[in-house]
TrEMBL record:
It comes from the Eukaryota. The chain crosses the membrane at residues 26-43. The lineage of its organism: Eukaryota, Metazoa, Spiralia, Lophotrochozoa, Platyhelminthes. The keyword Membrane applies. Keywords: Chaperone, Membrane, Transmembrane, Transmembrane helix. InterPro entries: DNAJC25-like. The keyword DNA repair does not apply. One of its GO terms (biological process) is protein folding. This is DnaJ subfamily C member 25. GO terms for cellular component: endoplasmic reticulum membrane. It is found in: Membrane.
Length: 241
């Protein structure tokens, strides 16, 4: 400080910053952040899964099917407790909802973001498996280049699904959430072929244009109805006999 008196306060700042700054291991902070994010991810998975089950339990189609399965298995025939006392009406209703929810959970294959929670989708597990995932990805790319770019082999079913999903801009979870019928519909369009994909996009653009035109016409009609105070009515005075 004697050599550079003009930097005295700067040297004081450097001293106190190093003397009193909290000494926390950065690795612990990063690890805590990863664990917190993974915990929130797991809670979010269970929330989405339970919301999907609740929706299916209220949907008339799935509810009727689940009730048929429950009646066939005799799950709704229980009217008494183990001690012989009868269930109340509220208890029977709660038990029926629980049984239907269990049947739906057992019979319906939920996929995509609403699939059953899995530890493999958590951030901490993905980071642990990152070297293995990178190795798999490298081998997959190598096989793709060798099979389809160099040897020019025809696409197999897995390659067709990958190209279709990629052209549609869908992740694997979104593709799985479509269901077999919608997936088969997209595969029948052969979107992995550039010409077919271009034709599909043109057709889709035309559909969206027609829908937008119909929507704007409907909005104009609603504004007209609101302005005139209701739809036009035909009175008997205007009818010639």
């Amino acid at each position: 400080m004697l050599d550079n008196p003009d930097q005295m306060y700067f040297h004081y700042y450097q001293y106190y910053r190093r003397r009193y700054s909290p000494k926390v291991d950065v690795r612990l902070v990063i690890g805590a952040i990863i664990l917190i994010c993974s915990t929130l991810q797991y809670i979010g998975q269970w929330t989405s899964y339970n919301q999907a089950l609740t929706y299916l339990a209220r949907d008339p189609k799935h509810r009727t099917k689940a009730k048929e399965i429950a009646n066939a298995e005799g799950l709704l025939a229980v009217r008494r407790r183990d001690d012989g006392s009868r269930f109340t009406r509220e208890e029977l209703k709660e038990r029926e909802e629980e049984v239907l929810r269990t049947v739906i959970q057992r019979t319906v294959d939920l996929r995509g973001d609403c699939s059953r929670p899995s530890f493999r989708r958590l951030l901490v597990v993905r980071l642990v498996l990152l070297p293995y995932t990178c190795l798999q990805w490298f081998l997959w790319i190598t096989n793709w280049v060798w099979s389809y770019w160099i040897l020019c082999n025809p696409y197999d079913d897995e390659a067709k699904v990958f190209l279709t999903r990629r052209r549609l801009g869908m992740s694997q979870a979104q593709w799985d959430g479509l269901g077999p019928s919608h997936q088969e519909g997209f595969l029948k369009k052969q979107l992995w072929i550039p010409a077919e994909y271009k034709a599909y996009m043109l057709s889709r653009a035309e559909e969206l244009r027609v829908q937008a035109a119909e929507h704007s016409q409907h909005k104009r009609y609603r504004r007209y109805i609101k302005r005139v105070g209701g739809p036009p009515q035909l009175g008997m005075d205007g009818v010639d006999f």
